[in-house]
């Protein structure tokens, strides 16, 4: 099996690294530690993504008709790896490229494509996602936020919680229930909701993982235009399932884990602990977890490059990614104890990032259940 990159892709990776060296400010490490939802990083992402777009790099794996360059999904993987290695300077805009744009391409009306895709490919818009709810959490099919049709609008009432990247967001990929009598997967609808609509209220949820990281969204008779509905009414579960398949593999967080692991090994050597067989064993196990995450993610990218529809491989890759991040963050604690939690250190900033790994894009438990049913064909209880 050949694991080396084609010459063109290798050149692109090097050009991208050179661009990052030239573009990221001297205090980027400090800015990135605040988290992708912070004021500084949200503001920086607009300028940064616009510069990526000028070079044709931001959405190059998209079709040319939608602002891309018809590049293969492998270019998207390279872009994501290099972004996450240095702390994801695209901020929340990585979601735009990974799954919001592709989902609009598949399910959006022509008007929606014209409205949203040029802004995403130009690096000119911030989105958030309205999924989890106080009584539902990661069990999306238990959502209760209700949207009832009233003329040309939907009137939305309900709330969302643990919503990330709300800071500066202009639009929300919002899951609602349009049939109050429906249950579980039936009656769910997706709205591309403007965040400045009357009746939308935002409250920050203080969290240790980063500044402006989590928020609550409240909808009180919020009027969202019916033209903002993505896909048919009541059939939103197909839309969100497609989006989640892209979201689960698209943020190559293992790249940051690998870089952090290198730093941990260097720190262990400085402290004279690298010769300890127990430390070597733990470093080796963490490295194996990082490589497993990378290769399983590549499996999904390969399927996309071949035109395959999403499979349970996305769930498998997501679980491997969670295991990889937990292995690295736990190793930092084992090696350095309380020092690993000192604010501003590389170990502490990574530990905060890894805390979200087992919850984002569905909990690890939910992904394991999906693997059991979709890949192993195990029966439901």
Characterise the protein shown here.
The protein has a four-stranded mixed β-sheet with strand order 1-4-5-8. It has twelve helices and eight strands. Helix 5 (93-107) runs antiparallel to helix 7. The mean pLDDT is 84. The protein has helices at residues 7-23, 28-33, 39-54, 73-85, 93-107, 110-121, 236-248, 254-270, 277-305, 313-336, 346-354, 364-374, and strands spanning 127-130, 146-150, 153-164, 171-177, 188-194, 200-205, 214-225, 229-230. By secondary structure, the chain is α+β, with helices and mostly antiparallel strands. It folds into three domains: 7-125, Butyryl-Coa Dehydrogenase, subunit A, domain 1 (Orthogonal Bundle), CATH 1.10.540; 128-234, Butyryl-CoA Dehydrogenase, subunit A, domain 2 (Beta Barrel); 253-374, Butyryl-CoA Dehydrogenase, subunit A, domain 3, CATH 1.20.140. The two termini are 40 Å apart.
Secondary-structure blueprint of this entry?
Elements: H1 7-23, H2 28-33, H3 39-54, H4 73-85, H5 93-107, H6 110-121, E1 127-130, E2 146-150, E3 153-164, E4 171-177, E5 188-194, E6 200-205, E7 214-225, E8 229-230, H7 236-248, H8 254-270, H9 277-305, H10 313-336, H11 346-354, H12 364-374
Parallel strand pairs: 1-4
Antiparallel strand pairs: 2-3, 3-7, 4-5, 5-8, 6-7
Helix pairs in contact: 1-4, 4-8, 5-6, 5-7, 8-9, 8-10, 9-10, 10-11, 10-12
């Amino acid at each position: 099996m050949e694991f080396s990159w084609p010459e063109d892709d290798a050149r692109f990776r090097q050009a991208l690294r050179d661009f990052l060296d030239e573009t990221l400010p001297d205090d980027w490490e400090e800015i990135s530690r605040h988290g992708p939802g912070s004021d500084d990083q949200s503001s920086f992402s607009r300028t940064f993504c616009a510069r990526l777009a000028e070079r044709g790099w931001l959405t190059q794996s998209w079709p040319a008709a939608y602002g891309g360059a018809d590049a293969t999904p492998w270019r998207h993987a390279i872009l994501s790896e290099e972004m996450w290695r240095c702390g994801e300077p695209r901020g929340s805009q990585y979601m735009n490229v990974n799954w919001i744009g592709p989902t609009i391409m598949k399910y959006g009306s022509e008007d929606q494509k014209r409205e949203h895709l040029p802004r995403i490919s130009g690096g000119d818009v911030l989105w958030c996602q309205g999924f989890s709810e106080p009584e539902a959490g990661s069990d999306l099919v238990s959502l209760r936020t209700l949207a009832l049709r009233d003329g040309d609008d939907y009137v939305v009432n309900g709330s969302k919680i643990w919503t990330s990247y709300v800071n500066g967001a202009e639009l929300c990929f919002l899951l609602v229930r349009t049939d109050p009598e429906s249950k579980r997967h039936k009656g769910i609808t997706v709205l591309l909701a403007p965040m400045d609509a009357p009746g939308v209220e935002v409250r920050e949820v203080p969290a240790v993982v980063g500044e402006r990281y989590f928020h609550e969204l409240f909808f009180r008779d919020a009027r969202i235009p019916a033209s903002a509905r993505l896909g048919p009414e009541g059939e939103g579960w197909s839309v969100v399932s497609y989006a989640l398949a892209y979201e689960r593999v698209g943020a190559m967080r293992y790249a940051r884990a690998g870089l952090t692991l290198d730093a941990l090994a260097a720190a262990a050597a400085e402290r004279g602990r690298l010769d300890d067989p127990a430390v070597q064993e733990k470093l080796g196990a963490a490295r194996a977890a990082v490589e497993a995450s990378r290769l399983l993610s590549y499996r999904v990218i390969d399927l996309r490059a071949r035109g395959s529809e999403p499979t349970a491989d996305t769930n498998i890759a997501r679980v491997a990614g969670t295991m990889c991040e937990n292995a690295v963050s736990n190793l930092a604690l084992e090696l350095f104890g309380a020092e690993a939690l000192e604010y501003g250190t590389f170990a502490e900033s990574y530990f905060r990032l890894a805390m979200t790994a087992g919850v984002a894009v569905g909990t690890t438990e939910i992904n394991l259940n999906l693997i059991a049913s979709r890949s192993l064909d195990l029966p439901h209880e």
